[in-house]
Amino acid sequence: MAPAYKLIYGDYRGVAETSRFLFKYGGIEFEDARVQFEDWPQWKEKTPFGQLPLLEHNGKQINQSIAIARYLANLVKLAGNDDWENLEIDSIVDTVSDIRQKLVPIGREQDQIRRKTLIDTLIKDSFSYHLPRLEAIVEKNNGYLALGRLTWADFYFATISPMFDAITGQDCLANYPKLKAVRDKVNELPAIKKWIETRPASDF
Amino acid sequence: MAPAYKLIYGDYRGVAETSRFLFKYGGIEFEDARVQFEDWPQWKEKTPFGQLPLLEHNGKQINQSIAIARYLANLVKLAGNDDWENLEIDSIVDTVSDIRQKLVPIGREQDQIRRKTLIDTLIKDSFSYHLPRLEAIVEKNNGYLALGRLTWADFYFATISPMFDAITGQDCLANYPKLKAVRDKVNELPAIKKWIETRPASDF
Hints:
2 copies of one chain form a homodimer.
Chain A: E1 5-10, H1 17-26, E2 30-35, H2 40-44, E3 54-57, E4 60-63, H3 65-75, H4 83-101, H5 104-108, H6 112-140, H7 152-168, H8 177-187, H9 190-198
Parallel strand pairs in A: 1-2
Antiparallel strand pairs in A: 1-3, 3-4
Helix pairs in contact in A: 1-3, 1-7, 1-9, 4-7, 6-8, 7-8
């Protein structure tokens, strides 16, 4: 029987990796469908809003990576126990997402000098501002980003923060040992460790 | 007794208006705290991530407008009935939020010629692409953006889409009668109608 879930994305980690981690963590079978770069133009027309990832389930197709991850987090019990707890998680996820959004124009910049300027600004205005604040939150939260326990906020950070390093060419968490420990903690969960060892290789 | 909730934002509608609508819809008393422009620098230091809105409740303070709105939507019964329904709502909300994100660089652009170019690109690449797709969704969903009934996705659209008009100086929904009807339907709910008539005046 085909798996009940199909996750469609490009052939890289990107913003779909949070959901892949959540599937693996929960031991939920899914089809890890990867659209190759050359096939994307013809795929794009068939998507609801010209974007991936998409989650397919029960004949329905849904876009938006964070919305999909939140759904899966509920499924695998990495969400909050009530609406307020979910608010605390969502607040962290959207804060990390705001940082990620700032990477987008850098990824698109072809000119190497302008790219370097954008990276310097990102580090100065965003990383130097946001990362110490997130580090302090982990310090107060028993080594996690929310609720003093493992939640999908940690999964989101563990899968998104590697992009910070990839785009800047630096170890962006070098001065933030507690944030680095959050990432390591997620990466060392047995199901995740196994996934990282066996997943398709990609640059980001 | 002071209200159990305090919503802190600037003295305008912006991204906090969704939450104000949700409070009003649910008849939930809240302190509508508005930081004046000249007081923002000293306020900023006291916020978790240098941003508003903030929701204060039970001695806790949380940032991120969409996360706050989702929490309030659950409180006032405008969320889904299960995790999949919430995914359908979240997917729409984040899609509308993606459009809103594209307004940010236009708001910051001081040069009128460059601003005009950015607006033309926004209309051509985003509005002309996303709005017909959202219009088709409303058509299939009984006149609503999700689940065939009133949800906070409609509230989000009703409060965010006026920014499309404000920033472009155009009636951006002119060709999308079903989307316009969604906005009107929300605005004409008795509690919302009353709020719109009495809320502090602001440009956006």
